[in-house]
Amino acid sequence: MSKFYPLTVAKVKHETRDAIAVTFDVPEQLKEAFAYQQGQHLTLRAMIDGEDVRRSYSICSGVQDDLLRVAIKRTPGGQFSTWANATLKPGATLEVMPPMGHFNVPLDSQSARHYLAFAAGSGITPILSIIKTTLLAEPKSTFTLFYGNRASSSVIFRDELTDLKDAYLQRLNLVYVMSREQQDIELFNGRITKEKCQQFLKHWIRAEDFDVAFICGPEDMMHGVSAALQEAGMPKERIRIELFASSIPKHERKPRPVEAGANHQTEVTVIMDGSHVSFTMDKEKESILDAGLRAGIDMRYSCKGGVCSTCRCKVLEGEVEMDVNYALEDYEVRRGFVLSCQSFPIADKVVVDFDVAE
């Protein structure tokens, strides 16, 4: 899972002025490695101005499409996204890690479920994959999507969403929310916030009508919508969230003081791709990921912000303190999973396993 593979770019389509959809050509011998579930993401790697740059982008194609495609929206100051939008062309080669992520629920062709989704901007990317896959896989299920943008011109995948609506007239309810473009229904003007979601729940939908909710977008929108849904009676475990690294605030670790006379160093063993590698690091000074990279280990990572879950591993021995976590579910943390980019050892010996899937 930690290995990158060179994939050729088959197609680059400009969806909006600052967003492209990139389709990869997956050779037959890699079809199994790059089989994906709806809502998962890819970690892309490129040398940009002599620097090894990695970023995670959500897959936007449905599982049944037999197509590997991601959307890359240019963000202010975004090194990878700016480079990709400016230079990627068909025939280019990118290093790509196999699909990862848990932003989905198991599907059943016999289910008749009602799904709800809130997306803002490029947050539509994994949601589109989930909608396309679900409506085909569960013929009795329905989907309601609230999609927030500044204006019509900034709506990513607008044509595809229109085609989906035409194909599933009775099963897909599509609501656009615009912050800088006036719409006829006042309820659908503004940004998607907790208060806006409360208005939707009062005037347009009922929380009790839905089985699962998906939320993807900026951090404040995500937490606001989740809070509104929970206050309306939807259990937290039925709300799935996916946050993008570009939308989180910067976090600075405040090291805990190490007691005088205590051991300041930790022996860390990393299990990855069947191999065991050990190194020694100082407590509290850097994360397990950064220390491993400094020790020369090709550790698996992307965002380094606790968002993408690319560096997810399981603590088999010892104890670590995780600074921030936007990627792991509560049940994963209870089972011992951590994000190595946010994990600081507090025991004298720590063993982490990157090969454990569940």
From TrEMBL:
One of its GO terms (biological process) is phenylacetate catabolic process. GO terms for molecular function: 2 iron, 2 sulfur cluster binding; flavin adenine dinucleotide binding; metal ion binding; oxidoreductase activity. InterPro entries: 2Fe-2S_ferredoxin-like_sf, 2Fe-2S_ferredoxin-type, 2Fe2S_fd_BS, Beta-grasp_dom_sf, Cbr1-like_FAD-bd_dom, FAD-bd_FR_type, Flavoprot_Pyr_Nucl_cyt_Rdtase, FNR_nucleotide-bd. It comes from the Bacteria. Residues 2-106 form the FAD-binding FR-type domain. Pfam families: FAD_binding_6, Fer2, NAD_binding_1. The keyword DNA damage does not apply. Residues 266-358 form the 2Fe-2S ferredoxin-type domain. Signal peptide: none annotated. NCBIfam families: PA_CoA_Oxy5 (TIGR02160). This is Phenylacetate-CoA oxygenase/reductase subunit PaaK. The gene is paaK.
